[in-house]
Amino acid sequence: MSSPDTVDRHDEDALKEVIAEQLGASRERSLGLTTEVLAEADLVAQVSPLMSPLVWDLAHIGNYEELWLLRGAAGADPMRPEIDTLYDAFEHPRATRPSLPLLPPGEARSYIATVRAKVLDSLASVRFDTADPLTSGGFVYGMVVQHEHMHDETMLATHQLRKGAPALLDPPGLPLEKPGGAAGAGEILIQAGPFHMGTSDDPWAYDNERPVHLVDVPAYYIDAEPVTNAGYLAFMEAGGYDDPRWWDPAGWEWRTKSGKSAPAFWTREGGRWLRRRFGRTEPVPPGESVQHVCWYEADAYARWAGKRLPTEAEWEKAARWDPVTEHSRRYPWGDVYEEGRANLGQQTLHPSEAGSYASGASAYGVRRMLGDVWEWTSSDFHGYPGFRSFPYKEYSEVFFGPEYKVLRGGSWATHPLAIRGSFRNWDYPIRRQIFSGFRCARSAGNEGEGR
User: Fold this and answer.
1) Are residues 125 and 193 in the same domain?
2) CATH of the domain at 66
3) 32 — phi, psi (to 5°)?
4) Percent helix, strand, coil in the chain (nearest 5)?
5) CB atoms < 10 A from the CB of 35, how many?
6) Which pTM value belongs to this model?
7) Where residue 3 falls among pLDDT bands split at 50, 70, 90?
8) Domain end call among 108, 127, 161
9) DSSP 3-state assignment of 435?
10) Residue of 45, 87, 92, 28 whose CA lies nearest to 63
11) Spatial distance between the Cα atoms of 98 and 112, rounded to a whole number of angstroms
12) pLDDT tens digits for 302-345?
């Protein structure tokens, strides 16, 4: 995979080749999740108030691209100014989008194709001005590519919520790395000390990842791997959903009002647990990372296990910091992305098993910190010291506050270009349709702190 990791950011021609390639890859993926696999009726339907109709996502990615790459970077006149408000994510909540006069699927696909053709035509004449943070290092193009991949992951969540015949098949591409060595067991001690959190020199990083700053973290233990389905099932069988001791008060209120007693998409039939995965029903694989659990469920499990969720700083230190070189890596294994070190990019449609991807371990030996499942942390979403909103407040700043919890690390559905060790995601603590899981931590010297 060509990426900005592998080119000199000052070599404009080489970077533009990477950008063109990645624009093409993101569009191929978007079409493969929409018009190439679903009928028009499925594209315009809303499967849940939590999600947009897929046809909205499709036209939105084109409108976003037109706003930033044609009108912005290339200075072109608006193509369809009358649709701007229809595809403004802050103007219309997801639940109301089916009632809008959206472009039908054929027209949406034609619109985004025209936008893309004009973007590629204009790319040759656009200059990447090092004095302009919007174009320096190709940032605005990287922002658009990442934005499309983020919506592709959202589209996958919509597919998971769909009823009816399956539309997606497990890809025949790279097989998941099979487990090797000690699988899943144990914790890893992270010694006390400062580390560099965030980034200031990654050309495609978002504003909430900046600036890099020193954080002093007390010693702690962190799970070597995410919690598995089998591990989570032990919590369920021990009555974890029925014991308020393990639940945050707001979580217990959610639990009692919702009636939830298992991860989303799980059902119990004939004495065994099954899951629905993209229209297919199958046994729950015990060794895979548990997914489709909300923050409250993750927090309750951690308390039951005598642990807690890691703070965002603890998660990032375990993932990025190399105590020997005193350097924060871009990825757990190094500064350049390498295929086969993480379950990313929709290589398959589910998490991998415990013990997989030993080659993707961090400097501390913590495994699978990128890919598989988004990992809930205990931290609220906020800006780092010295935060500056860029290029628009609605990407990060409007979400700062205790209402949102931070998730880290990406999932199997996250594209490699849309994830790195410093990347921050956030959501409400009740969300379960996302591909979310967790791992636990505990302070060094604090035994049984959750209990």
Assistant:
1) no
2) 1.20.120.450
3) -70, -10
4) 35, 15, 50
5) 18
6) 0.95
7) low
8) 161
9) coil
10) 87
11) 19
12) 999 999 999 999 999 999 999 999 999 999 999 999 999 999 99
